[in-house]
Amino acid sequence: MNRILRAPWHDYTRRCIYMVTLNKSPQAERFGSLEGDPRLPVGRIGSPFVSASSIGSAIKATLRRFYTIEPAVRILQYALMPDHLHLLLFVEYPTEATLGQIIARFKVEVNKEAGITPVFAKGFNDQILKNSRPLDTLYNYLRENPRRLAVRKAHPEYFRRVNALKIGENTYQAYGNIQLLDNPFREQVVIHRADTPETRKHNRELWLYTASNGGVLVSPFISAAEKEIRAEAEASGGNIILITNEPFPERYKPSGRDFDLCEAGRLLIVSANLPAALTRSTCLAMNTLASRLTLPNAPNSINDIK
Questions:
Q1: pLDDT for 305
Q2: What pLDDT does residue 248 have?
């Protein structure tokens, strides 16, 4: 079982906005069923949504009275999915309880409402909203969740090879889970020789926290130190966007570990269409592309496939 990491530099009793993900317990029935037409955009009548089961209804009822569990916490938005729940939480003022203790109390109340134990799996994932990440990005991500699932079911070809991924004015090849571009918590991994030990320690904590809690690490992972971060992130269950300088031949498929990660939906490989020789300029160009893919306005995974 992958160990979920918390942010060691962060005070989990402070005022903050989090996105929290709670997975379904193996013993519990599904939280709902996916319905609607994946061809219709969010907001249109008939667009994809999750119809709550009895347990899903118990979750929603408990969310409506979350203020009784912790008055300092406001639910900004949530997305109930068949096998997990996303919560966008705003801790409006400092609390005596940590985020983990508040989530534990919420789980207990859901169990009571549903009449079964446990509804949720052990633990939870959290992502801390940075000032650089617009809140609208998270609202849109949660609103689009049912449609993304519907598209995955209706169009499995979106999760293999894409020959024309538009990023700015350039077009790239990609292979794997294209929806990793939708994840609002993407961090570039780049290690410089001039980095101080303190900087390296902080960056490692940030990257492994991000990976452990459902985020995505983006990098060509060139140096030995960067490869080590990738290995640790994958071991913790993290998702990867790998930038490569190698073009994809006609029948390209990744091999070994990369193939397994693509099949599991945890890897997207993007070809930067650069010279094969790993020169300094090639490395800089790949890192520049990785940087662009961590921006809030990076390409939308579905709409930008041409």
A1: 39
A2: 86
| CA 281 – CA 287 distance, rounded (Å) | 10
Mapping DSSP onto H, E and C, the string for the chain reads CCCCCCCCCCCCCCCEEEEEEEEECCCCCCCEEEECCCCCCCCCCCCCEEEECHHHHHHHHHHHCHHHHCCCEEEEEEEECCCEEEEEEEECCCCCCCHHHHHHHHHHHHHHHHCCCCCECCCCEEEECCCCCCHHHHHHHHHCHHHHHHHHHHCHHHHCEEEEEEECCEEEEEEECHHHHHCCCEEECCCCCCCCHHHHHHHHHHHHHHHHCCCEEEECCCCHHHHHHHHHHHHCCCEEEEEECCCCCCCCCCCHHHHHHHHCCCEEEEECCCCCCCCHHHHHHHHHHHHHCCCCCCCCCCCCEC
pLDDT per residue over 18-32, tens digit each?
A: 999 999 999 999 999
Distance separating alpha carbons of residues 89 and 103, to the nearest angstrom: 11
Residue 259: predicted pLDDT: 86
Q: What are phi and psi of 208, to 5 degrees?
A: -75, -35
The pLDDT score that the predictor gives to residue 241 is 98
The residue ranges of the chain whose pLDDT is under 50 are: 1, 301-306
Q: Are 152 and 158 in contact (CB under 8 A)?
A: yes
In this structure, the dihedral spanned by the alpha carbons of residues 55, 58, 59 and 60, taken in order and rounded to 10 degrees, is 120
pLDDT for residue 194: 94
> How far from 196 is each of 174, 200, 223, 226, 247, CA to CA, in Å?
34, 6, 16, 15, 35
Is the distance from CB of 210 to CB of 133 less than 8 angstroms? Answer: no
